[in-house]
Amino acid sequence: MVLQNTGNRLARPHFDWPLCLITFALAVFGVIAVSITNFDPSLEPDRPLLKLITDSGNGSWQAIYLLISPIAIAGVMFFNYQFLGRIWPVLYITSCVLLVTVLGARYMDGDSGTFSRWFALLWDRTLQPSELAKIVIIISLSSELSRHEKPVPNIKYFLRLLAHVAIPMALIILQPDIGTMLVLIIVFLALLLAAGCSLKLWFGIIAAGVMALIPVGMYLQRTESFRWMRLISFIDPELYSDAGGYQMLHSMLAVGAGGLTGVGMFVDGTLTQLNYVPENHTDFIFSSIGETMGFVGAMILLALYAMLFYRMLLLAYNTPDRFGRLIIIGVMAMLMFHVFENVGMNIGVMPITGIPLPFISFGGSNLIANMGGVALVLNVTARKRGVRRRY
Fold first, then answer.
1. Domain carrying residue 48
2. Does residue 11 sit within a domain?
3. Is residue 391 in a domain?
4. Residue range 66-102, pLDDT digits in tens
5. Is the peptide bond before 89 cis (omega within 30 degrees of 0)?
């Protein structure tokens, strides 16, 4: 017997306000967290929260990015996600051109020895094309995996999918940006699994990837690359305290100093205010949250993430068409890996990869890209086709 689940609101087209509200709650949390890392104790200590944010250079910019983000959400939602799936080649080529251009920009400046990840914009702001690439890959891979009843009908099609991811990944590695490369790998594996690919193929891909990384790791170890030091420092941070373990050790000390309720958010003389942890407004912002807000504040943040991912999982389950469902799962996988890796490297259980904390770490490109990912999910839920059937 076939029954339509007509009583379930999640199965019908709708704008998902809970997902939207959770996302903006995280973003507001991020503005406060960034402002804490940029706190200037020389100014009046009893300023209102809004004044503390506007007096913070990074905090005020993060607030501006947050105010701009609804425009990004509206822009993504303006186009039907099915239309975005049809024009993915245009989006894909544009993304690759931007990645090539950002590599060439540094060469044209006469510095061919190193590459860059950002375009310079007005007011000393930058744009990171690899953030756009993550969203484009989610759209394009979801579309390709939805074309046939069997997601990977033959080996030729699989090689096509592999090349699909490998091209932008190679351009991102050249920047170099190991963190974004890992995100693309996780998104690729998550979409293959969610699309219904066999576990044999899935585990085969993982095994082949590990085998391919072994010579790369051996090369980095022989050359004593700082990237190798960053990757292995989490095993014994004290052993590499003068290299890759420096940030991790200081981050762990800051998190531990917060105790249960934290030392206070805008307090003079804290490890956060003294910049004890390098990059504590970007990749290591969780250490600042742990110190200033304590275990309670960290758990509130993680609870918001749990609510976000659970909501996306519910929406994916109640989305009948494969393309829309894969988009939701791709965005969820991207954000989940960011949170898992970033929090892990802040507390010393994951290697340092330079992955920001979604909606929290300072940066316009990352915040707008993450908002764009959530907008894709909202787009799917607002325009999904049909009603889920239960058998």
1. 29-386
2. no
3. no
4. 999 999 999 999 999 999 999 999 999 999 999 888 8
5. no
